[in-house]
């Protein structure tokens, strides 16, 4: 299976530096488990060492500093093959055991607690994932019916969505199992789940304290504010 949609370099750099909040970091954990290209990128960032990364506070990071780090990495970059994946394709009939029908969570979430599926809208259910390292982290599974069209929405903070089962499409492409959708706060999009089967995603917001967008309304009943 080919992964077409990856984490950005900025996200992977923050992940490597331990600067990503718990919930988005878990989404990246799951993505990395199936994406050799992003794993290789993280290893490169880690190899840069703590001294350099400590200087790259996201809030204070200038575009020039970020570009300089990327140039330093690319100077020693080995060619990354972005088409290799250890994940096998997951279709409707081969959904990984335990999500809807008693299946297990992805390996990277095995130490987490999965809440019950609850309806949060027409054709949309959600399950809150509680993380042992941060009980307040906002991580959730979204389960959206086949062919379901979600309202166009923007985000406050970056929205990370990792596809686990099924697929959806928006203005930026089609997202299959293993793909990661990383949507910045300035981006609006309208996801549509493909007709073949329902879609189950792992989703988190980074900096999503202002829960006023579509995603915010969805998770509002589940988060403690
Ligand atoms: Zn990737």
Describe the structure.
The protein is an alpha+beta fold and 225 residues long. The protein has 2 domains: 47 residues, no CATH class; 125 residues, Jelly Rolls. The protein is built from 6 helices and 10 strands, in the order αααααββββββββββα. Strands 1, 2, 3, 4, 5, 8 and 10 form a 7-stranded antiparallel β-sheet that branches. A 3-stranded antiparallel β-sheet has the order 7-6-9, with no helix packed on it. About 10% of the residues have low confidence. The structure holds zinc ion.
Care to give the gist of this entry?
This protein has 225 residues and is an alpha+beta fold.
According to CATH, the homologous superfamily of the largest domain is: Jelly Rolls
The level-1 CATH class of the largest domain: Mainly Beta
Query: What would the principal axes of the Cα set say about the shape?
Result: globular
Q: Say how many strands there are.
A: 10
What gyration radius follows from the Cα positions, in whole Å?
A: 17 Å
Which architecture name of the largest domain does CATH use? Sandwich
What binds here, in terms of ligands, is: zinc ion
Average pLDDT across residues? Answer: 76
| CATH topology group of the largest domain | Jelly Rolls
Order of helices and strands: HHHHHEEEEEEEEEEH
Low-confidence stretches: 76-97
List keywords for this structure.
binds zinc ion; three-stranded antiparallel sheet; 10 strands; Jelly Rolls; 2 domains; seven-stranded antiparallel sheet; single chain; alpha+beta; 6 helices; 225 residues
């Amino acid at each position: 299976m080919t992964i077409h949609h990856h984490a950005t370099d900025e996200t992977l750099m923050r992940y490597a530096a331990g600067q990503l909040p718990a919930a988005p970091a878990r989404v990246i954990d799951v993505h990395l488990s199936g994406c050799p290209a992003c794993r290789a990128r993280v290893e490169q960032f880690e190899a840069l060492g703590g001294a350099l990364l400590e200087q790259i506070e996201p809030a204070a990071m200038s575009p020039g500093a970020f570009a300089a780090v990327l140039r330093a990495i690319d100077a020693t970059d080995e060619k990354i093959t972005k088409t290799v994946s250890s994940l096998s394709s997951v279709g409707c009939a081969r959904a990984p055991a335990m999500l809807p029908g008693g299946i297990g969570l992805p390996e990277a979430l095995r130490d987490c607690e999965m809440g019950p599926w609850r309806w949060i809208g027409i054709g949309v259910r959600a399950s809150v994932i509680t993380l042992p390292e941060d009980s307040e982290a906002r991580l959730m599974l979204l389960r959206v019916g086949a062919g379901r069209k979600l309202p166009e929405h923007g985000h406050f903070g970056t929205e990370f969505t990792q596809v686990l089962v099924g697929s959806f499409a928006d203005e930026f492409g089609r997202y299959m199992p293993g793909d990661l959708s990383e949507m910045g706060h300035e981006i609006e999009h309208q996801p549509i789940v493909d007709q073949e089967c329902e879609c189950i995603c792992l989703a988190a917001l980074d900096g999503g304290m202002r829960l006023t967008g579509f995603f915010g309304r969805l998770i509002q009943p589940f988060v403690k504010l």
